[in-house]
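QA checklist item 7 of 12: single-chain prediction sanity check.
[x] sequence parsed
[x] length recorded as 161
[x] structure emitted
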Amino acid sequence: MLTSYSSFDSANKPDSHPLHAFRTVAVLRIGAGLVLFLQYALEGVLRAYNFVWTKAPWDLVATVGQAGVPWPQILLPAAALIAVTVAVAWMVGFLTRLFAALFLPVIIASLLVMDKVGGYAHFTVCWLYVFISITLMFYGSGIMSVDGLFKLGSRPRKQKR
């Protein structure tokens, strides 16, 4: 049986439930964190580990150095560590707004470096992560998260008199 909803009966629509936006944000947060971790951050942190501790060559350091970025041998391992931390924090929903704000300069810097060296293969992905980070900064992690479990990041509510 199909049900029609009038504009006055929006409270009974399935999508108008107050928790709908928070569930949607959880899907975005977990999905983006999982893809970030599996596709980019894990490989980056493993390469950074090998570069720092075993002195293995990392071609990306030379590429970023050619783009004019100072200290690429320090900034790239730091960016890889930030990316892995952000991915894990997004997946579990821990301080999502803080980690989205922390990730935004990293992803914008990678956009600028790719523009200088011509690495357009991941350009679209970087823009998507810019928009995902901005969205998560506005909406937070939702209730299906560590933040929601401990009420982290929630504003104190005014007492009704």
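[x] summary fact logged: Confidence is low (pLDDT under 50) at residues 1-12.
[ ] second reviewer sign-off
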